[in-house]
Amino acid sequence: MMTLKQSRRLQSVALGGLSWLIALLIFFPILWMVLTSFKTEIDAFATPPLFFFHPTLENYIHIQERSDYLHFAWNSIAISFSATILCLLIAVPAAYSMAFYETKRTKQTLLWMLSTKMLPPVGVLMPIYLLAKGTGLLDTKLALIIIYTLVNLPIVVWMVYTYFKDVPRDILEAARLDGATLLQEMLRVLLPISKGGLASTALLSLILCWNEAFWSLNLSSSQAAPLTALIASYSSPEGLFWAKLSAVSTLACAPILIFGWISQKQLVRGLSFGAVK
Amino acid sequence: MATLKLKNLKKGFEGLQIIKGIDLEVLDKEFVVFVGPSGCGKSTLLRLIAGLEDVSSGHIELDGRDITEVSPAKRDLAMVFQTYALYPHMTVRKNMSFALDLAGGDKAEVQRKVDDAARILELTPLLDRKPRQLSGGQRQRVAIGRAIVRNPKIFLFDEPLSNLDAALRVQMRLELARLHQELQATMIYVTHDQVEAMTLANKVVVLNGGRIEQVGSPLELYHHPANLFVAGFLGTPKMAFLKGKVSAVDTGGCEVSLDAGLQLALPHSSAALKVGDPVTLGIRPEHLELATAGQPGLSVTADVSERLGSDTFCHVLADSGEPLTVRLRGDLNNPYGQRLQLHLGAEHCHLFDANGDAVSHALRAAA
Amino acid sequence: MTTQTANKAQLRDTRKAVGRRSSNPGWFLVSPSVLLLLLWMIVPLGMTLYFSLIRFNLLYPGENEFVGLENFSFFLTDSGFLPGIWNTVVLVLSVLIISVVGGVLVAALLEASDFIGRGIVRVMLISPFFIMPTVGALVFKNLIFHPVSGILAALWRAFGAQPIDWLANYPLASIIIIVAWQWLPFAILLLMTAIQSQDLEQKEAARLDGAGPGAIFWHLTLPHLSRPIAVVVMIETIFLLSVFAEIFTTTNGGPGFASTNLAYLIYNQALVQFDVGMASAGGLIAVVIANIAAVILVRMIGKNLTDKG
Question: Residue A135: which residues within 8 A CB-CB, separation 6 or more?
Answer without folding.
Answer: none
